[in-house]
Amino acid sequence: MLVVQTIAEVRKFVGEARESRKSVGFVPTMGALHEGHASLIRRAVERCDYVVLSVFVNPTQFGPSEDLAKYPRTFDADRQLADRLGVDLCFAPSASEMYAANCSTYVVPEGLQDALCGRSRPGHFRGVCTVVAKLFNIVRPDVAFFGQKDAQQAVIVQRMIEDLNFAVELEVLPTVREPDGLAMSSRNAYLSPAQRQDALCLFHALQAAFAAITRAQRDAAAIRAQMQQAIAAMPSARVEYIELVDAATLKPVTGLAGHHVLIALAVHVGATRLIDNIVVDVT
Length: 283
Ligand code: PAF
Known about the structure:
It contains ten helices and nine strands. By secondary structure, the protein is of the alpha/beta class. The chain folds into two domains: 2-173, HUPs (Rossmann fold), CATH 3.40.50; 186-277, Pantoate--beta-alanine Ligase, Chain: A,domain 2. α2 links the parallel β2 (24-29) and β3.
């Protein structure tokens, strides 16, 4: 696996792959790779001839009081894992390589950014769209691989691809969970052993929602109340939001029947903000 830091090198190596008529798969990450990222990489390697991984902790998607400085950085381990999994090119740019000092153009996903995580993280999806658009322009992949764990991000990036005519297909892969159900996340590394236990409340709340739907409950408010209860049971957990929204538009649904429903939540466990979701086709 080649590791490069500059845009020019990415263009050179990906250009050579394209000249050899190879399909290009792309997995954008902020590093601190875990099994969730590994599943994206494995799928990219299975599907595409040439696989590019980016490792870049993107400053523009962090708010002023968020965890940019302490975000886990484990580049040596990331590089080894990516190499083992068959990545061809790892792009690990500096912030100044990605953002010139006079950079003043951003991509703003209007509307969709006002839902779910966007409400408490103003500017987050502007940062995500900007960096993903830049990375798409640098790598020019045929297929980009994203995780369902960041459901709103996947919906927004799909919208951006269509709105800005990027010639890239988005493949969204299922959330990978620990054996006890906790969704894999780089931020799980912040949890103390007691908080790690409490963090299971996100999964338990989603299970409660699914069970209620299976028992023919179709009222979003009733399901939300049950999810609240699952979280209230955990001492270090505080709900930021629990939402039942249409999976494509991210608009709230009150009666679930006939909807493809995204059930999403954000919960603070101690100082760590965790998110999780499931999508249910409700009849
Ligand atoms: O999901 C992430 O890790 C980031 O938001 C992404 C897509 C790599 C953009 O920085």
